[in-house]
Write a structure and sequence with these properties.
InterPro entries: AAA+_ATPase, ABC_Ni/Peptide_Import, ABC_transporter-like_ATP-bd, ABC_transporter-like_CS, Oligopep_ABC_C, P-loop_NTPase. It is a peripheral membrane protein. With about 350 residues, the protein is α/β, with parallel strands linked by helices. About 30% of the residues lie in helices and about 20% in strands. It contains twelve helices and twelve strands. The termini are far apart. The structure holds iron/sulfur cluster. The site of iron/sulfur cluster has 12 residues, from loops.
Length: about 350
């Protein structure tokens, strides 16, 4: 895509008809020696203030690459964005100059990464790392910035924040380190927060606490939250809507309640059936057969056809569009009615 860059930052204040963030027909490719990896193939979604969108899919489904494109942290090249828009408050971020993009990144759209231990710098205290946000972006003095760091550590419920502000990352548990990452990401009151698998490295109880914390912070600040995960079980209580990704496309998009009640895509159904349930103790856990496709050589027709129990002949040749099921729901499956009704072929 030819880039005509601008320094005009997205407006603040009222949104009018525009969503807070809108990803529109986004395509991302990686040009490698082995060929072109089509990582994101026409993804569209929106998130509004105070809204939580869960983006769900296996590794390689394109969910994290889409997030990195929103943040503007893809290595380009080898990444190329041949098509699409990422509108933040109506301004296409892909058209912003790098200078303007830097002012959006971290300040107005922030991101929490999966692995807090490698994201934090081991040789600086956590207080120093949190307070850096205020020193660099707000021009605060060291002592004022450190006070703000303690406030933030309190806000993300780190016990004895005042005493622990001078500790190093390795002195904290995994859950506490993730809280520190969350503190850093919300330091500058972002309007959109992207959490990329924020609880994957944590045990189940701590996962629930971190999810609860994110939901609480979001309620307080009315951020738009994009929660990226491979685990449908994690998002049930916190998401408003879900976008399920497979092979770089959204295959189902719906309010969270609709998806849990009755999925309209065989892949979503497979993900739901894979969640362990206490009432099925002793039974084999369901797993979707086969492996995610090679993005260098996507299957013809519907990318899910080699693994799909609902497959028909036309699935091998015809790419399913995102069929509109209702005003808020879509499924990229030719046979979404049968899936919704639970009629396996
Ligand atoms: Fe399965 Fe066909 Fe639907 Fe693809 S389009 S998910 S192969 S039934």
């Amino acid at each position: 895509m030819k880039k005509t860059s601008t320094n005009v930052l997205p407006a603040e204040g009222g949104l009018g008809d525009e969503p807070l963030l809108a990803v529109d027909d986004l395509h991302v490719e990686f040009h490698t020696r082995a060929g072109t990896v089509r990582a994101v193939n026409g993804v569209s979604y929106t998130v509004g203030p105070g809204e939580t969108l869960a983006v769900l899919g296996e590794s390689g489904s394109g969910k994290s690459v889409t997030a990195q494109a929103i943040m503007g942290i893809l290595d380009m090249p080898p990444a190329v964005i041949p098509k699409g828009q990422i509108r933040f408050r109506g301004t296409d971020l892909l058209k912003l100059s790098e200078e303007a993009r830097t002012q959006v990144r971290g300040q107005r759209i922030a991101m929490i990464f999966q692995d807090a231990l490698s994201a934090l710098n081991p040789v600086f205290t956590v207080g120093w790392q949190i307070s850096e946000m205020f020193r660099v972006h707000r021009g605060m003095s060291k002592s004022d910035a450190m006070k703000k760091a303690v406030e933030l550590m309190d806000r993300v419920r780190i016990p004895a924040a005042r005493q622990r502000v001078n500790d190093y990352p390795h002195q904290f548990s995994g859950g506490m380190r993730q809280r520190i990452m969350i503190a850093m990401s919300i330091a500058l009151d972002p309007e959109v927060l992207i959490a990329d698998e924020p609880t994957t490295a944590l045990d189940v109880t701590v996962q629930a606490q971190i999810m609860e914390l994110l939901a609480e912070l979001q309620r307080e600040s009315q951020m738009g939250l994009i929660l990226i995960t491979h685990d449908l079980g994690v998002v049930a209580d916190v998401a408003d809507k879900i976008a399920v990704m497979y092979a770089g496309r959204i295959v189902e998009q719906a309010p969270v309640y609709d998806i849990y009640k009755a999925p309209a895509h065989p892949y979503t159904k497979g993900l739901l059936d894979s969640i362990p349930r206490v009432d099925q103790k002793g039974q084999d856990l369901y797993a979707i057969k086969g492996l995610p496709p090679n993005l260098l050589d996507l299957p013809t027709g519907c990318s899910f056809h080699p693994r799909c129990p609902y497959r028909q002949d036309n699935c091998v040749t015809d790419v399913p569009p995102l069929y509109e099921i209702s005003g808020t729901r879509g499924s990229a499956c030719h046979y979404w009615r049968e899936v919704l009704d639970g009629d396996q072929q």
